[in-house]
Specification:
single chain; alpha/beta; TIM Barrel; eight-stranded parallel β-sheet; 49% helix; globular; binds zinc ion
Length: 280
């Protein structure tokens, strides 16, 4: 069933597990994700990022998603990942998404507050939950600069609750050392900072850049207060590897179906790590 992410994430926060936010980019990744979570009886936040609108349009994916969600007996939120503008968020809400992220994390605190508040106002009128990001989660390819540049972009614990109070946001993505894409170097996560943020902030916290962070670290992050973990790169890698292995045996394949199984298994493994099995 289609729901927003509010109850799902507060339950996760209360019971101390993590909800997966797998990214999808086509019909097959969508099918893999919904089937994978149904088999695990796990709630899920299915995400389409604005950078993938060229692959698939929010209306297009929402129509497909409705078909599968009618049959799936688990809570599913449809989420816009990294919406850059008010317009992108409104477009996703109009398409039927139940959750949106407005990412103004590269702007000043004041501008981030202003833009997030605008989205919260309209989203809450529509029963849609909003995620924002304070501090900035960078790219894995820049990771060797972590001790210099990336650390300056970490979330400031003192500012975090102020941000939540000013904006009315439902969940908050934090920058504590994870990165998008593939890490160039070893991930170093600031768990002390995470704990501080968790103690100060009264909404569920979100971790971007889950792929490649490592199971033990992700488990620690959940223990220290993360309620939602975003996974994209590892799902794409698993899909590609599954396609490759079929190609090694045959020179004709059903591309999408070959990838689906790989994506599903990869996500299901993460759901085990996050402790979200049976929480639907
Ligand atoms: Zn992200």
């Amino acid at each position: 069933m289609l729901v927003n992410s509010k109850e799902m994430l507060f339950k996760a926060r209360k019971e101390g597990y993590g909800v997966a936010q797998p990214n999808v980019w086509d019909l097959h990744s969508l099918r893999a994700v919904i089937q994978g979570c149904e088999e695990k009886r796990s709630p899920v936040i299915v995400a389409l990022a604005e950078v993938h609108f060229d692959y698939i349009d929010p209306y297009e994916i929402m129509n497909m998603a409705r078909f599968y969600m009618e049959k799936a007996d688990i809570p599913i939120a449809m989420h816009l990942d990294h919406g850059n503008t008010f317009e992108a968020c409104v477009n996703a809400i109009r398409a039927g998404f139940t959750s949106v992220m407005l990412d103004a994390s590269m702007l000043s605190f004041e501008e981030n507050v202003k833009r997030t508040t605008e989205v919260v106002k309209i989203a809450h009128k529509c029963g849609v939950t909003v995620e924002a990001e304070l501090g900035h989660v960078g790219q894995g390819e820049d990771y060797e600069k972590i001790d210099k540049d990336l650390k300056d972009l970490f979330t400031n614990p003192e500012q975090a609750q102020e941000f939540v109070d000013l904006t009315g946001v439902d969940s908050l993505a934090v920058a504590i050392g994870t990165a998008h894409g593939e890490y160039k170097g070893t991930p170093k996560i600031d768990l002390t900072r995470l704990k501080e943020i968790r103690n100060m902030v009264n909404v569920p916290l979100v971790l971007h850049g889950g792929s490649g962070t490592g199971d033990n670290t992700l488990k620690k992050c959940i223990d220290m207060g993360i309620s939602k973990i975003n996974i994209c790169t590892d799902l794409m890698k698993a899909g590609a590897a599954a396609v490759n292995s079929v190609l090694n045996e045959k020179n004709y394949i059903d591309l999408g179906m070959a990838g689906e199984e790989g994506i599903k298994k990869c996500l299901q493994r993460y759901i085990d790590v996050f402790g979200c099995v049976g929480k639907a």
